[in-house]
Amino acid sequence: MSLQQFISKAVSPWLKEEAEDSDIVLSSRIRLARNFKEYPFPIVADSDKLKKVLEVFEDHFENQSIGKDAKLELIRMTDLEPIEKRVLVEKHLISPQLTEHNDAGAALISQNEQVSIMLNEEDHIRIQLYYPGLQLENALDYASKIDDWLEEKINYAFDRDRGYLTSCPTNVGTGMRASVMMHLPALVITQQINRMIPAINQLGLVVRGIYGEGSEALGNLFQISNQITLGKSEEDIVEDLKSVVKQLIEQERYARRRLMSNSSIQLEDKVFRSYGILSNSRIIESKEAANCLSDVRLGIDLGLIQNISKTILNELTILTQPGFLQQYAKKPLKAEERDVRRAALIRERLHLEKM
């Protein structure tokens, strides 16, 4: 697979698969932070040392395969245009921090985009593994296999008492961040989410927006992840997160039933107004588009809208981001130009879906 294929398709192949609770949990992710024992960590290393890390992956892991559909292609940040970097960030294949790093930054990405291994970001190695729906255990199992595969060639920075050593102290221990991306519109509409987030934080978890730390929860999409990495096993971290996610799923389903029972006309009006905006707008900003797409997704889940698939909504959620809009335009766009193109793209895609 070429770089052009990674940046031309909005929806990663793994995201098209149906899975448990995928109407509320869009994805499960395991991220492992690792470092070479013999080289300074990226936050203090010079360019020559970081290039040695990259050379290890060029020599041993580039174009290698891990299981079915998992041939890894090495994408170097120095080979990318700014818009191409932004597209990969919007697809969650790399982080914003990696795009701003030195000339030794890179990522190994699998053909189905389920696996992404970032190199020389905050740590030498950031293994990311995605699954659709609530599949944290499967994601952990696969990530552990990749971790073992890398360790056959790499001597990790590890301490018997502290565990894996990382640039940020909050990752020391397992070096693992487990997270799920959840669509929680009913809890937002009923304002229950405002009291739930502080309670979740008290359990050692953190609630963030769609692009992680510092990002806004656009389109009622929330990322729930662990904060504690030291003193717990990977399995315990996953089990604790899964327990909270299960409760959130139950609360979201209950809130949806209540809305349908007590405020069905108002809810239908909200859903179909948003559908009308998406179908007819000539100018639409990214925040409004995200919120309208969330309403339509809820309408599909509740059976109010019959002729639109959630795969299309997943596609539009990514396609309407600034990077993708500019990638399709083949040129940088001003904010106003993006708003016009965003509206046109949504109209065209929804029209094709109904044909």
From TrEMBL:
Keywords: Allosteric enzyme, ATP-binding, Kinase, Nucleotide-binding, Transferase
Top-level class of the enzyme under EC nomenclature: transferase
Gene Ontology terms describing biological process: phosphocreatine biosynthetic process
Chain positions of motif RDXXRA motif of the pArg binding pocket involved in allosteric regulation: 338-343
Annotated Phosphagen kinase C-terminal domain residues: 24-255
One Gene Ontology term of the molecular function aspect: protein arginine kinase activity
UniProt-listed InterPro entries: Arg_Kinase, ATP-guanido_PTrfase, ATP-guanido_PTrfase_AS, ATP-guanido_PTrfase_cat, Gln_synth/guanido_kin_cat_dom
Statement: the UniProt record of this protein carries the keyword Nucleotide-binding: yes
GO cellular component, one term: extracellular space
Substrates-to-products reaction catalysed: L-arginyl-[protein] + ATP = N(omega)-phospho-L-arginyl-[protein] + ADP + H(+)
Name used for this protein in its record: Protein-arginine kinase
UniProt source species: Salinibacillus kushneri
Name of the encoding gene: mcsB
